[in-house]
Amino acid sequence: xxxxxxxxxxxxxxxxxxxxxxxxxxxxxxxxxxxxxxxxxxxxxxxxxxxxxxxxxxxxxxxxxxxxxxxxxxxxxxxxxxxxxxxxxxxxxxxxxxxxxxxxxxxxxxxxxxxxxxxxxxxxxxxxxxxxxxxxxxxxxxxxxxxxxxxxxxxxxxxxxxxxxxxxxxxxxxxxxxxxxxxxxxxxxxxxxxxxxxxxxxxxxxxxxxxxxxxxxxxxxxxxxxxxxxxxxxxxxxxxxxxxxxxxxxxxxxxxxxxxxxxxxxxxxxxxxx
Length: 274
Ligand SMILES: NC(=O)c1ccc[n+]([C@@H]2O[C@H](COP(=O)([O-])OP(=O)(O)OC[C@H]3O[C@@H](n4cnc5c(N)ncnc54)[C@H](O)[C@@H]3O)[C@@H](O)[C@H]2O)c1
Description:
The protein is an alpha/beta fold. The chain has one domain: Rossmann fold (3-Layer(aba) Sandwich). The protein has eight helices and six strands; from the N terminus they run βαβαβαβαβαααβα. It has helices spanning 30-41, 57-66, 102-130, 154-174, 198-206, 209-216, 229-236, 260-266, and strands at residues 21-25, 45-49, 84-87, 134-139, 185-192, 247-250. The chain has a six-stranded parallel beta sheet with strand order 2-1-3-4-5-6, sandwiched between helices. Helix 1 (30-41) links the parallel strand 1 (21-25) and strand 2. This is D-arabinitol 2-dehydrogenase. InterPro entries: NAD(P)-bd_dom_sf, Sc_DH/Rdtase_CS, SDR_fam. It comes from Hirsutella minnesotensis 3608. GO terms for molecular function: oxidoreductase activity, acting on NAD(P)H, oxygen as acceptor; oxidoreductase activity, acting on the CH-OH group of donors, NAD or NADP as acceptor.
């Protein structure tokens, strides 16, 4: 154990977020919402930020589950400390590259890259101001790492690899403690595979053939639910205190074999794995 390490008899105390404050962008629904719920479950106070005027019905259900008698915040009401952020706000537009309108490409990058960068910078300013240190997690994608079959969205894919490099760059820039006593900030990313969220459900309405393609491309032969809570809690808590500049790939094994169709072929008789 490191010197002065506080050992207590609570289970997995390093994951405890009691007394910590977080923001989650894109927290109105989908993946962002489920990650916000994870932080609240671990004891954190979470502010969900989103461009939606009202949170999704799912948000109300999540609030009831994790804060049955308390108050969950939809907008920031008090500012005293900020310990972490999950940057999940993102948009997807599947359009062949030669048909992609310039303004659509700019809008995609404005949210998926510039918005994420601005969010992280604003969060870091607060963390250094409050001298509280903290952890930032970008939601990138496996589409930022491979030419993901059927993901005919060169701009989206590029925006996600940009986030992965942003992760490393900001981790380097903000990682160490400052001379004024402020601790450093850790910056990591999660790169999920295909998850059934409102974003993907809409994609399946536009391109129904993608459902089967994407289901068969990973080793588990199923799409993910928003089942990334453990990873987010790990990255936002003391449990990952020596981890920064990293990108956690959670894709059901999709990227583990370079020929994804081969993987689908050899396992076609096997049932989906839970
Ligand atoms: N669903 C997947 O398969 C998948 C896979 C890999 C990565 N991701 C990423 O996960 C993140 C969440 O995706 P999701 O599937 O839950 O999508 P979603 O569309 O269900 O939710 C995204 C949320 O972001 C919000 N948002 C969009 N633009 C915004 C902006 N400019 N400012 C504030 N909020 C904004 C939306 O209103 C929405 O509530 C995205 O960054 C997405 O790229 C999703």
